[in-house]
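User: Just a sanity check before I run the rest of the batch. Below are the structure tokens for the first item. I only need the designed sequence back.
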């Protein structure tokens, strides 16, 4: 990607995300039970745990899709608990979303052009184009430029005119990441970004993620493929029954008896 998308990372705290005592109940089930953890800036951190451990609910609490019953989420030094998802995204904490079915009937380019609505990037551009006549046109041109940069970065520019619905699972994931990046995030939450992705595209997506991490982006990744987590994340957080069981380096996690126990099969 050209530098204009990646070079202007705003200063963020060394620990951009801090989750404190996060709790969420659904009736009698405590899906997330006093979870506390931190994510360091510029890292690819893995969040793992067996089915039903509370990973998705934690993501939903962090991104404002759900409100916690207790605890708080601090992003870039600010308490963002209870904010609406768009307010959290505007602060630079963004989650990738699957391309909705109706967007499958639009081309890749159209999907990209829709992506940054109401996002920070647009505000930034607006601030450098102060109400000049023709400003809307300039904004569109600037947007188009950024869209092409993102498509090129993810090597899907040749698919620009293709309907999103015709993309393979892996190509769709690349488009989802490209769309998320256009919103000018500091941190990306990835919920199983490699599901249904063939090994070649998976490696490409991983390479892009590592490249972006090297440029200062921060990633929190939920993924069931243990080898992928262990080979790519410097820090791994393990959830079990709504709680943080342990965290550490892949080597520490692999050697942890409690983790092996939690997975029952011991396939870590
Ligand atoms: N909306 C909901 N209503 C009721 N129970 C829910 C709801 N969402 C999640 N749960 C329950 O909360 C617990 C945690 O679910 P969650 O989806 O967060 O786990 P997970 O770690 O993401 O699981 P998986 O790896 O299978 O996706 C589970 O017992 C689940 O059944």
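Assistant: Here's the designed sequence for the first item:
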């Amino acid at each position: 990607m050209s530098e204009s998308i990646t070079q202007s990372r705003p200063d963020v705290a060394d620990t951009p995300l801090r989750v404190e005592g996060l709790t969420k109940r659904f009736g009698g089930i405590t899906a997330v039970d006093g979870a506390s953890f931190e994510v360091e800036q510029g890292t690819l951190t893995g969040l793992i745990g067996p089915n039903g451990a509370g990973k998705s609910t934690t993501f939903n609490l962090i991104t404002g899709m759900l409100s916690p019953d207790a605890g708080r989420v601090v992003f870039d030094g600010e308490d963002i608990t209870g904010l609406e998802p768009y307010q959290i995204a505007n602060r630079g904490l963004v989650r990738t979303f699957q391309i909705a079915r109706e967007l499958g009937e639009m081309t890749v380019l159209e999907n990209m052009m829709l992506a940054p609505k109401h996002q920070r990037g647009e505000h930034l551009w607006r601030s450098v184009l102060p109400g000049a006549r023709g400003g809307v046109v300039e904004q569109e041109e600037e947007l188009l430029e950024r869209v092409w940069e993102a498509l090129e970065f993810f090597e899907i520019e040749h698919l620009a005119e293709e309907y999103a619905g015709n993309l393979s699972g892996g190509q769709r994931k690349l488009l989802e990441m490209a769309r998320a990046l256009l919103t000018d995030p500091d941190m990306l939450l990835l919920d199983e970004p490699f599901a249904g992705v063939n090994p070649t595209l998976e490696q490409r997506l991983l390479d892009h993620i590592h490249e972006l991490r090297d440029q200062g982006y921060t990633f929190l990744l939920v993924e069931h493929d243990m080898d992928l987590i262990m080979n790519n994340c410097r820090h791994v957080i393990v959830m079990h029954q709504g709680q943080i069981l342990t965290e550490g380096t892949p080597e520490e996690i692999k050697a942890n008896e409690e983790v092996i126990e939690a997975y029952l099969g011991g396939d870590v």
